[in-house]
Amino acid sequence: MLDKIWDDHLVAAGATPAEPDLVYVDMHYLHEITSPQAFGGLAAAGRAVRRPDLTFATEDHNVPTDGLGLRNASVAAREQIIALRRNAGRSGVHLAQLGAPDQGIVHVIGPEQGLSQPGSIIVCGDSHTSTHGALGALAFGIGTSDVEHVLATQTIRLRRPRSMLVELCGRPRARLTSKDLALNLLATLGTSAGQGFAIEYRGEVVTTLSTEARMTLCNMTIELGARAGMIAPDTVTLDYLRARPFTAQVDWDEAAALWLSYCSDEGAAYDRHVQVDVSGFAPFVTWGTNPAQGVPISGFVPDPASMEDGPSRAAAERALDYMGLAPGTAMRDIRIDSVFLGSCTNSRIEDLLEAAEVLVGRRVAEGVRMLVVPGSEAVKRRAEELGLDAVFRASGAQWRSSGCSLCVGLNNDVAARGERIASTSNRNFEGRQGAGARTHLVAPRVAAATAVAGRLASPEDLERL
């Protein structure tokens, strides 16, 4: 699958195996954080955007989500957003501006609009571009200098990644989400398992996942250390793409036949092949400061003294000190100050439905703040059509406008020092959600149950209260 996509986009091979290839880019996503310097470089060189029709910009990382627009944005955020508006306008690049129907997190709106298609090479100045691999694309994050190169040439110089197959075997327990699958995988394989690889996911459980659930799995491929995650397109993919704004006009039969051809051949060889039995996987939650430091929610904070002396033990000791946790503490006994449902990992309509199902008829615990932030304006509108906003508001949660929100620590949605958060974002490292903030990564259903219980909890725990 990787080789098929790569070979179809190869413009020029490197002169030697050690040198990067030049490959064509089908879709380039932009946002306000990593694009100003690239546009500046382009202007300084007297170049124009080569293919504005294959470039799509949105405002997401730095936008306020309280509905007040730029009036409530910081000076730096306002300047970056205004710069993107100016650069997009001058270049003829479509911009999904704050409040527009197609605005939202770049990794939500690309698939939602049908811009992300199977067999494509997709890039963005954001590591979680791997999300789009759920549609059978080769998608990866790039640096600012690469953004400038793609803007100028619609190509990028890259070394072909090695291929890795992660085969998920067995049948997971009922209601286990793809977020739980990803957190379990991280604890099993570690955060460096995918370094240098593009990971293809395969297995019975993968075929049963919805496209949105596949996006969560591919999104979190970055936490495994890989640059890209992919799932072969199938009928689930086609059903998702049918009648999206940017696929409604294609010759469907021709496009579908081409898209389905981007799958690995029977017996294809991979540079690394890992089989993981998911039968024993359970709802997971992290205790530490990297996404692999997690245990089942029925588990306990580990004791570093029980670990082999070395980097992992030292990292665990440092993580527990930052997180303010004692070894042996039951995860279910950890009290929470805030809950965040959102980010490019878990802000789609299915994520909101899962959380609302837990919250309906229940109240967020006294003293707990819960933010619900849809990933796009379209998700927000659909949620309101379904009455999900009423469920969240009735429970005491805050219903916000679309954006990255309490994930990146760049906008107004940040946590206070020492604040403990159950979060559906991927990042729990030190300071990510605010200086001194302590983050536990969870799935949407666990996030909702935790908000009600006021401590880390699963929906099944609520039934026992």
**Helix/strand-derived class?**
alpha/beta
- Structure summary, number of beta strands: 19
Report the uncertain regions: none
Integer average pLDDT: 96
**Radius of gyration of CA atoms, rounded to a whole number:** 21 Å
Supply the number of helical segments: 16
Sequence of strands across the biggest β-sheet: 5-4-3-6-7
The oligomeric state is single chain
Distance between the termini: 48 Å
Main pleated sheet:
5 strands, parallel
Strand content: 15-25%
What level of helicity do the residues show? 25-40%
Note the overall shape: globular
At a glance:
With 465 residues, the protein is an alpha/beta fold. Helices cover 32% and strands 17% of the residues.
Structural account:
It is a single chain. With 465 residues, the chain is of the alpha/beta class. Helix content is 32%, strand content 17%. It has a five-stranded parallel beta sheet, with helices on one face. Strands 17-16-15-18-19 form a five-stranded parallel beta sheet, covered by helices on one side. The longest helix has 17 residues. It is globular and about 60 Å long. The N and C termini lie far apart (48 Å).
